[in-house]
Amino acid sequence: AMPITLVNDDFVLGLDNASYDARSAVGKFEPFFEALSLDRYAFQREAMRRALLFLASDNYNNTSALATEHFNASGKLRAHFATQPDYLGKFRLADRKAISLDLATGAGKSFVLYGIARAALAMGLADKVLVLCPSLTIEEGLKDKFLQLSARQDLKQIMEALDAVHPNPPIKSANDPILEGDICVENIHAAYDRTGSSISDSFKGKGARTLVLNDEAHHIYSEADAGTKKWLSFLRSEDFGFRMIVGVSGTPYIGNEYFPDVVFRYGLKQAIDEGVVKKPDYATDRALGGGVTLEEVFSNHERNRQSYGTQAKPVSIVVTEKILACVQVWKDLVDELAKAMPRADAERKAIWVASGIPSGADGAEVKRLIPDAEKARKQNMQLLRSVDSADNPVEWIVSVSMLT
Fold it and tell me: Residues 6 or more apart from 257 whose CB is under 8 A from it?
């Protein structure tokens, strides 16, 4: 027999037997979904609906029930996996109501997270919502977005008209107590850090009535990142007993395997085809050292300044694989810039961005190049936040791998 080739769409779980009650409960909040996301973002509304439909439906006691239904309905999956337990073994949280949404980066994941959080509270599905993300930078971005959306009077009026259980939930961080009807936005590190965080006081033993939303959910399963390694254990922790868990990611893969628990997919190709996400226009697709010289990068930067300098300052981003390389390239860049200006100015124009200082030999070398490396790293992270503003001098960012 020919081997069966599975594509990502084959894994997307159907919700064919969602209960009538769940459909009408979610349908009631249609005016809210419509107001929250504009016409061309219909996929955002569908993502919210599908997540909530699963959470609200009594016909699916857990993800295992949904997966079993999908397996039985899919000839392709049955041909691909030797047995049903082989397929179910791919699910990490099958005993909970835990699902994922695959939404292309740039397609407005924060709107979807916000819509699900607010509707779940409005429907009385959950008493509290905990939104987790992998870093402080992402947390700040999400919180800003949530606060902007919470300020919208039209959404508040719609929720009041629909008799929402919690019509206008406050947006908080874990340094405040999280009360019934609150949405808490935090980075995962605060969840492990028992000091200064109210997470354990606010959510201990309350997991059954808490909805946990995870942004950049691929980090939950990432073996690479020690900091987020405990993310899955936190979600599974008996102290909390979380039952309702939704993850959102633009890259929903564990290694090379697509997430098994996706209930809605809006891929990058579709997003680009529909004009929702712009196709990046890379100046150089070759890597530095793979034929691109600093000179080329500089001349491209200057061309951008000449073309657009009156409307916006040019910003060039150089991406490196490791933290040590990031610092080394930054130093070379500053040396080069300093040929045309005072060194202090050159250092103001360029920053290096990394998630931490490595240990071992790499760390020692970083500290040799930059004696007060950790302090410099934190200052750079602050500068990065306002890099778009005209009074921020930064034009060059050297960053490690994925720059969110």
Answer: 90
